[in-house]
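Pilot study result, target chain (94 residues):
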Amino acid sequence: MAASRLHSLWNHPAGPKTIHFWAPTFKWVISIANIADFSKPPEKIGYPQQIVVACTGVIWSRYSLVITPRNLNLLCVNAAMAGTGLYQLARKVK
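Predicted structure:
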């Protein structure tokens, strides 16, 4: 059973053999870096950067639901980007 699931993941249109898998996977680095910046003082957080991170996350989250093949990795990474960007903006505003 595990072999068949692995085989179906490998051959999925958004699987590891395609750019549809690797681009969102490497995009996680942006979200991880933004999470690492949670410890920075809000004064050192830039509005333009966080606005771009949040907007990119929102726009691409929506896009990931309408494209073919459906790409949940893209949805998750962009939801994380939107969340971390909005959180950083909220910290900055406070």
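One observation from the pilot: Residues 72-93 form the longest helix (22 residues). A full batch analysis is planned for the follow-on phase.
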